[in-house]
Amino acid sequence: MDTLLRHPFILLVMGALLSGLIIPFITKNWQDRQKSLEIRTTLVSEISNAVMEFFMSIQFVHIRKETPRTSLTSVPSHEQAEFDQAYKAWEVKSAVIGTKLQAYFPKSDIPKTWTAFADVMTGFYALEGIVESQLPSNMTALANQISATLFYDLPESATYMQLREALLKCKSHIIRAILQTKVSLS
Q1: What single-letter DSSP state applies at residue 107?
Q2: How far apart are CA 105 and CA 185, in angstroms?
Q3: Distance between alpha carbon 108 and the CA centroid of its chain, in Å?
Q4: Interval 87-101: pLDDT, tens
Q5: Is 68 left (phi over 0), alpha (psi -120 to 50) or beta?
Q6: The pLDDT value given to residue 2
Q7: In contact, 119 and 145? CB cutoff 8 Å
Q8: pLDDT at 72
Q9: On the CB side of 80, how many CA atoms lie within 13 Å of its CA?
Q10: Among candidates 175, 43, 32, which has minimal Cα distance to 103?
Q11: pTM of the model
Q12: Which of 10, 110, 122, 180 could hold 105 in an S-S bridge, CB 3.0 to 4.6 Å?
């Protein structure tokens, strides 16, 4: 047997097997790992960008709303137009992100969690247009929605800052899940 393994033809066949099967297998695995990392990194970046742009628009409106105005109008039209544009951009970006998550994580809960999160973000946006007398009940409904769909425990009478903090933590949870879950490349 020892003589057979030293025969040049056997060594040639073993070399061909090594270079024809094993090396391409290792190379493909490495390329798949790189592609998976690239997809996850891009998705995390897109999510952070979309969420924080929309979040900042909401917060600017919230701060403006709390600042006393000297004019009789509640919100100047250009400010409302900016707010509406931020909402439109959010809806498009969140839908695109949702589609990518369905494509790359079809067997996980990530797409479902993202959809619930996007709905809650839209609800958070809507709080800025609600009249003051209806705000507490709408904030309670949003807190309940966060607790039920995103599994983040909030008191029923959550404050604006508690809702804000919950949304940021839910975003971080989604990002962690993306980074820890295997990407489907097929």
Answers
A1: T
A2: 9
A3: 14
A4: 999 999 999 999 999
A5: beta
A6: 67
A7: yes
A8: 47
A9: 6
A10: 43
A11: 0.81
A12: 110
Closest CA to 53 of 88, 26, 22, 25: 88
In our burial notation (b when 16+ CB lie closer than 10 A, e otherwise), range 128-154 reads beeeeeeeeeebeebbebbbebbebeb
Distance CA 103, CA 106 (A): 6
Which has the higher per-residue pLDDT, 26 or 178? Answer: 178
How many residues are recorded in the chain? 186
* Token pair recorded at residue 26: 């290792």
Average pLDDT, whole number, for the chain? 87
pLDDT at position 70 is 52
Residue spans of the domains in the chain: they are 39-67+74-180
Sign of CA dihedral 109, 112, 114, 116: negative
Give the integer Cα–Cα distance in Å for 156 and 145. Answer: 10
| 3-state secondary structure at position 127 | helix
Centre a 10 Å sphere on the Cβ of residue 91 and count the other Cβ atoms it contains. Answer: 15
User: Which one-letter amino acid corresponds to residue 156?
Assistant: E
Measured distance CA(139)–CA(144) in Å, rounded? 9
